[in-house]
Amino acid sequence: MIRTLEEGELVLVTVREGNTTDYIAGREGEYIHIDNGDFDSGETVVIEITNKKYNSARGRIIEDPDEVDKDLLDWSTPEGEFPKLKRHLQQVNPYDFEDFIAELWEQMGWETRSTSGSGDGGVDVVAIKRDPVQQKHLIQVKRYGKNNTLGVNDVRDYGYLLDKQDGDKGIVITTGAISQQAKEESDLHNVEIIDGDDLCSLIQKYDAEGTAYGYAKKN
């Protein structure tokens, strides 16, 4: 099954093979049927998604370069190469970013509840899994820019807050970097910390690039 794609999304893909009517494009295991154009296998083209279904998507080749918003291209990045995806996440509205994390955790198999505006003091998303054993994770979300770093005080303060909460584990997610001191502090408080690169890896692992694109497109 291909990753989640959004109608209107622009993706940069490589044509793999074709026939008289369709071409199949995308990374291995991610297929898009192209409805127009005459291109050779191996050629890189820009596709606009025109229709999506559960296990397939259709699109048209963008032939006019002026139609292409280059800032939104190539969300299907090779594994381990996330500069564009991370840059877009850093521009998402902070409240929308909380909703995105809740949706991402749902795609990972958790039940989630966003706590924005509920007065839960520092906990942004509550994630619950009931099988095979019940777990409750309390997630704090920090949508940082590229020049912001999660520090030791951020982790320490959240650790103290968790001592007063009913949860099995705390998670702090940031689109920025994490200081070495913050990493060491997290071990003292049962807090998992996820930086921008780790988050992008999760997005790719759970085929959530299309979901991320949808949130970035709002801004």
Structural class: alpha/beta
Helix content: 25-40%
Shape: elongated
Largest sheet: 5 strands, mixed, barrel
Taking all residues together, what is the mean pLDDT? 78
CATH topology-level name of the largest domain: Trna Endonuclease, Chain: A, domain 1
The strand order across the widest sheet is: 1-2-3-5-4
First CA to last CA: what distance? Answer: 28 Å
Number of strands: 12
Q: Helical stretch count?
A: 6
Task: List the uncertain runs.
Answer: 25-29, 71-81
| Number of individual domains | 2
Give the DSSP E fraction (strand runs of 2 or more residues): 25-35%
Task: Specify Rg, calculated over alpha carbons.
Answer: 20 Å
- The ordered H/E elements are EEEEEHHEEEEHEEHEHH
CATH class membership of the largest domain: Alpha Beta
What is the CATH-assigned architecture of the largest domain? 3-Layer(aba) Sandwich
Question: Short summary of the structure?
Answer:
By secondary structure, the protein is of the alpha/beta class. The protein has helices at 83-89, 94-107, 152-162, 180-186, 196-205, 209-217; strands at residues 10-18, 23-25, 32-34, 44-52, 57-61, 111-114, 125-129, 135-142, 149-150, 169-174, 177-178, 191-194. Strand 2 (23-25) and strand 3 form a beta hairpin.
